[in-house]
Design goal:
The complex is a heterotetramer of chains A (540), B (214), C (317) and D (116). Chain B is mainly α. Chain B has helices at residues 15-50, 52-60, 64-89, 93-124, 140-174, 184-209. In chain C, the strands form three sheets. Chain C has a five-stranded mixed β-sheet with strand order 3-2-1-5-8, covered by helices on one side. Chain C contains seven helices and twelve strands. The chains are: A mainly alpha (540), B mainly alpha (214), C alpha+beta (317), D mainly alpha (116).
Chain lengths: 540, 214, 317, 116
């Protein structure tokens, strides 16, 4: 029956049912769904690798016999998760879907480029999976030379090519977003009337466009060195292996903010909506996003405090790293300030959002440990670092992704997900995550190095704890997959604005028409213009 | 693109709006390109910093004359194309085509000189880094680093030139569609063409000049 | 926690104080964040009828307040961490030098007396130890959690790492820079013992020639003495030899290079001179010295350097 | 129209002049570090291409924003990126005339017998 509804009601989903109408579409909403499918696939591929990693570490000598297999596993986990899930996830799915809707535009500035970027992404994914099938890589996702350029037996070049292509897909997306935000704002949609989600995507795109090409060239230099057995990183001829690390982190540190900034945006939409209160300190949040994008380019050296760089650069990069934490702190306080005096509802998106604030705060604070030089010397390259960036990326970014997915699910699919299941998923994910990764902070302090296939027995207890937590976390991830899929067919039909949220995307029907709006909207209200709760009561 | 009207796609309010977007987009892409070449320049700084004599010795092996001639060729090609843009702006399509053809020929000439002549000499002189590298003695390593930079830099620039030639050719083919009212592709390709020129303007001293001299 | 991870060196405790301080700051901020969230979740839940007051007008005062507060805290932590870091990486002059070579996938250690060990390092407590480390292949990292120190070990250059062990005992040594398949097996034991026991250990394991003696033999075999003279007295003295700088007393002294820069002749410098003479050429000497790259392996190079270090101007033939 | 053409030709002439300058500069007996000065004309040339050929000054402000961003970020990359090698290992000391020493001996392996 529900399927027939889909056919009857006019929306971007019912605008053509042929495979062609999907694979050759230039509709940003359909491309978002194409992307959603691809990144979900990669998320579970990377997740499988993670599961095997945790499985291996249950016993000190390693459950998986061969160290080589283990090294290939965590390399695959890193490469797939970083370039094929974390970096694209929010921008290419929620971003693609919402940027034009929130701006009151009919599509992105360059729809065909948008489709092309998806095909590039798929191509990159195929090459990456090929390199795995062909035998994999064992160099870690950081590809440090000379291990990668001369010693590794793995399929380095294939993997590098995959990342290279994926990079251009990101550049295309970022470029598209920036131009769209500059050019296609609806009448009355001034810069300071834009939702913070758009601001954070703008900041993200700046990083994508200006950092990714650096990675591209770095990988070219690496491939050249591996193919011709000579290159600028080769210490044997006076090249400098640290140059590779500088270049790699010039991209990869800002890339961390590519992962988390869109999350900030999502949370900045959800917290006001479920506190039915305007965002606290809008301009501060906006400029915090922009300054994060800029400062994130000035801190890469903190990945190299024990790598043999000069003392001076270590000092400079250390203080800059502390600076980048300030705008993040500002955001956290502003979200809490938003909750103050609000009318807080605890639907699943809000639960995910609160989980995000907690986990991200922990991730951010442990970042201070590794920014403080002397502490970093002890903690870097250990499980402390692993725990730290998983708190930011998985605890932070993935929670935000699920928060946003639940928040806009009714808009995207026209269906409501089962609320109770949603809340259960949020809670299980939060608990499972902490069970998995908190023990790793202790492991790190005690000195357990990362990327170890086997370890001294005294580390076993904490490792078993972590692996046990991982199973809970796995349930937390499989649950939404199940009930969200279920809701596609049997979920209740969603109204245009099920959350009483502000923002243009809620002013059009769910799911939206192919052309988004019947007539181009005109913006008059400031952002997050939530009526005082008394009024809000009447809405329900 | 079904709703796309003659002059502009449906998401834009008018043709000018779309033109501005396209031009801004190209500029942003070029900014990205600058960062693409950035690491190459940083590699130049590192390699020369650690191995100055050898690196400069490598630079002395390059062919200053061909390099300089090529630079002039490229500058002129860029001028020709920009003139073409000015002409179509003024509605003179015939001149546009002539300018584009000149620009195209000059660009092709650059590639012939660079890869047909200069690279051939370099290879025959055994300057490609590796076991058979010609320069021996204490300066060998630095010189090899220089030629890693040289070959990678010129190859990537050449690749950009090649793409540029295809684009300019495409403009020539489509020339009859353009008018003072609509010539966005001409301007956009022009931006790219001049940018490739710019890259060479920076590469030229890094390859031929800085290392040379007494 | 410290109960589980011994503080074996003088600096270990200091690093722990810094980490504890960081933990306290984090806990305070976490308590604030979680506390407020929980409070508001209960107090301002949609159902509750508490008076919300008027919507806030000006927010910037608060914003400035918490921005400045975080800035100050962070800056304090930076200074603390930086100060300690600088001390961690400034070896004292009187440190006992021990040579470490990393290769896939083992640690090779050589003591002054020529004693070798693999994947273990015996050292005396109560005096500063300076490791002179290099790698034969990829980047490794010498990490001893009980000492709260680690440093990458790079091919083609020396990295120094120093510490003073206070507590005797056996401590984990890890390679913490992914170095290939056997990465996890590139571990070892640091055995810290009182000075007398260390001397005893040296005596029992003193099979190998002392590094200096071996270095002297290599110095002849590689023909260094041809130009630099026996005992490195300098070429000019020895008849018919080419003019080459004297090496006696070179170690630790400042050297002016052709490009006018002045460097201190440390292990790193001497190593470069042997492998890439052109790069580190001394002012006033013709560029005649051939490069020994690929002709001397790391261990022999270490011996030659140890020999050159041992040379003093008094030792004329 | 013709005025625009004159503009372009002027820019082109300027480019050739700057090219000649850097070309000449590279042949002067400059110290190795000072020789990087030839990059200054090059940067000016790039600026001329951007402003005159690519008409950066005309049209919407977004392109100018992007151009500045590109420059700023590449400056960050090269600046912060070279901070480390420039301050690693060797401690530079100002000597009265750094070049004087290196002039006493011909560059090893260099074909040029003398430096002038």
């Amino acid at each position: 029956m529900s399927v027939t509804d889909l056919h009857t009601e006019k929306s971007y989903l019912t605008d053509g049912f042929t495979l062609r109408s999907w694979l050759l579409t230039t509709d940003h909403k359909r491309i978002a769904l194409l992307y959603l499918g691809s990144i979900t696939l990669f998320f579970f591929v990377g997740g499988l690798a993670a599961a095997l990693i945790r499985y291996n570490l249950i016993v000190p000598e390693g459950m998986i016999g061969s160290a080589e297999t283990y090294n290939k596993l965590f390399t695959m986990h890193g490469v797939v998760m970083v370039w094929f899930f974390l970096i694209p996830a929010i921008p290419v799915t929620l971003g693609n879907f919402l940027v034009p809707l929130m701006l009151g535009a009919r599509d992105l500035a360059f729809p065909r480029l948008n489709l092309a970027s998806w095909y590039l992404f798929v191509l990159a994914g195929i090459v990456a999976l090929y390199s795995v099938v062909a035998g994999g890589v064992d160099t870690g996702w950081t590809f440090y030379t000379p291990l990668t350029s001369a010693y590794s037996k793995g399929h380095v070049v294939a993997t590098v090519v995959a990342i290279f292509i994926a990079g251009f897909s990101s550049i295309a997306t970022g470029l598209n977003f920036i131009i769209t935000i500059h050019q296609l704002r609806a009448p009355g949609m001034t810069w300071y009337k834009m939702p913070v989600f758009l601001w954070s995507l703008y900041a993200t795109s700046v990083i994508l466009v200006l950092a990714t090409p650096v990675l591209a060239m770095t990988l070219l230099l690496l491939a050249f060195e591996r193919i011709f057995h000579i290159g600028v990183f080769d210490p044997a001829i006076g090249g400098d292996p640290l140059l590779f690390q500088h270049l790699f982190w010039f991209y990869s540190h800002p890339a961390v903010y590519v992962m988390i900034l869109p999350g900030f945006g999502v949370i900045s939409e959800i917290v006001p909506a479920f506190s039915s209160k305007t965002l606290f300190g809008y301009k501060f949040v906006v400029w915090a996003s922009i300054s994060i994008a800029v400062i994130s380019f000035l801190v890469w050296g903190h990945h190299m405090f024990v790598a043999g760089t000069s003392l001076y650069s270590a000092l400079v990069f250390s203080i800059l790293s502390f600076m980048v934490a300030v705008p993040s702190a500002i955001k956290v306080f502003n979200w809490i300030g938003t909750m103050h005096n609000g009318f807080i509802r605890f639907d699943a998106p809000m639960l995910y959002a609160i989980g995000f604030i907690g986990l991200f705060t922990m991730g951010g604070l442990t970042g201070l440990f590794v920014a403080a030089l002397a502490a970093d010397v002890h903690l870097t390259q250990t499980y402390f670092v692993v725990a730290h960036f998983h708190y930011v990326m998985v605890g932070g970014m993935v929670s935000a992704f699920f928060a946003g997915l639940h928040f806009w699910w009714p808009k995207i699919t026209g269906r409501l997900y089962p609320e109770m299941w949603g809340r259960a998923g949020a809670v299980i994910m939060f608990l499972g995550f902490n069970l998995t990764f908190f023990p790793q902070f202790l492991l790190g302090y005690l000195g357990m190095p990362r990327r170890y296939h086997s370890y001294p027995p005294e580390f076993q207890v904490l490792n078993v704890l972590s692996s046990a937590g991982a199973t809970v976390l796995a349930v937390g991830y499989l649950l939404p997959l199940a009930y969200l899929t279920w809701s596609l067919l049997y979920g209740k039909r969603a109204s245009a604005n099920p959350w009483n949220a502000t923002g243009l995307e809620w002013k059009t029907q769910s799911p939206p028409l192919t052309e988004n709006f019947i007539s181009t909207p005109v913006v008059t209200d400031p952002p997050y213009h939530y009526p005082r709760p008394e009024v809000a009561q009447h809405h329900d | 693109m079904t709703e796309a009207s003659l002059t502009h796609d449906f998401q834009y309010s008018n043709a000018r709006h779309q033109a501005e977007s396209a031009i801004s987009g190209m500029w942003l892409f070029l900014a990205s390109e600058v960062l693409f070449f950035g690491p190459l320049f940083l590699a130049w700084i590192y390699s020369r910093h650690w191995n100055q004599s050898g690196f400069d010795e490598g630079a002395r092996q390059t062919d200053l004359m061909l390099g300089t001639v090529n630079t002039v060729i490229l500058l002129t090609s860029s001028l020709a194309y920009s003139a073409g843009v000015a002409f179509i702006e003024a509605g003179n399509r015939r001149r546009l085509i002539q300018c584009c053809v000149i620009a195209w020929l000059l660009g092709a000439a650059f590639l012939v000189v660079k890869f047909g002549i200069e690279w051939r000499h370099d290879f025959s002189k055994g300057l490609f880094p590796g076991p058979e590298f010609a320069i021996v003695g204490p300066l060998r390593d630095g010189a090899q680093l220089f030629f890693v930079f040289y070959f990678l830099g010129t190859a990537l620039h050449g690749l950009h030139m090649f793409v540029g030639l295809i684009l300019v050719g495409w403009i020539i083919v489509r020339a009859r569609e353009f008018s003072p009212g609509y010539y966005t592709p001409v301007s956009v390709v022009g931006l790219y063409w001049s940018f490739v020129d710019m890259v060479w303007i920076i590469l030229y001293p890094l390859i031929y000049l800085v290392g040379r001299g007494p | 926690m410290n109960l589980w991870l011994p503080q074996a060196t003088t600096d270990a405790a200091e690093v722990d104080y810094l980490i504890i301080a960081l933990v306290l700051v984090s806990c305070a901020i976490l308590a604030l964040v979680f506390g407020l969230i929980l409070l508001y979740m209960i107090k301002y839940r949609a159902g509750s009828g508490v008076d919300r007051g008027a919507p806030p007008e000006k927010t910037w005062r608060l914003e400035i307040a918490w921005t400045v507060a975080t800035l100050l805290i962070f800056f304090g932590l930076f200074v603390w961490g930086a100060d300690l870091y600088v001390r961690l990486f400034q070896p004292p002059p009187d440190a006992l030098h021990i040579y470490v070579v990393g290769k896939q996938w083992m640690w090779k250690v050589e003591h002054q007396g020529g004693q070798h060990e693999i994947n273990s390092l015996h050292l005396p407590i109560g005096r500063p130890i300076q490791l002179v480390m290099t790698s034969e292949d990829v980047i490794h990292d010498f990490s001893v959690p009980a000492f709260r120190i680690k440093h990458d070990v790079l091919p083609g250059r020396y990295e120094a790492l120093w510490f003073q062990v206070e507590k005797p005992g056996t401590y984990h040594l890890f390679c913490t820079q992914l170095c290939g398949t056997g990465h996890a097996s590139m571990t070892g034991d640091i055995v810290a013992m009182p000075a007398p026991e260390y001397e005893l250990w040296l005596a029992q394991n003193g099979a190998g020639e002392p590094m200096v003696a071996e270095g002297r033999i290599l110095f002849m075999r590689y023909g260094c003495s041809g130009c630099h003279g026996g005992n490195g007295a300098g070429g000019s003295q020895s008849v018919g030899a080419v003019r080459a700088p004297a090496l006696a007393g070179l170690y630790g002294s400042p050297v002016t290079l052709v490009d006018g820069t002045i460097v201190t002749a440390d292990e790193r410098y001497i190593r470069d001179c042997v492998l890439m003479p052109e790069k580190r050429r001394v002012a006033g000497y013709p560029p005649l010295m051939p490069s020994f790259t690929g002709q001397i392996n790391e261990e022999n190079l270490l011996r030659i350097i140890a020999y050159i270090k041992s040379l003093t101007p008094e030792m004329q033939p | 129209m013709s005025q625009r053409l004159r503009h372009l030709l002027l820019g082109w002439a300027l480019l050739l002049v700057l090219l000649a300058i850097e070309f000449g500069l590279s042949l002067t007996p400059l110290d190795r570090l000072a020789r990087t000065l030839v990059l200054i004309p090059a940067v000016l040339m790039a600026g001329i291409v951007a402003t005159i050929f690519m008409e950066l000054g005309r049209g919407p402000e977004a392109p100018r924003l992007f151009a500045v961003a590109g420059l700023l970020w590449v400056a960050i990359l090269l600046g912060l990126g070279s901070l480390d090698p420039m301050t690693r290992i060797v401690y530079h000391v100002q000597t009265p005339n750094p070049t004087s020493v290196s002039h006493d001996f011909p560059e090893p392996g260099s074909e040029r017998p003398s430096r002038r």
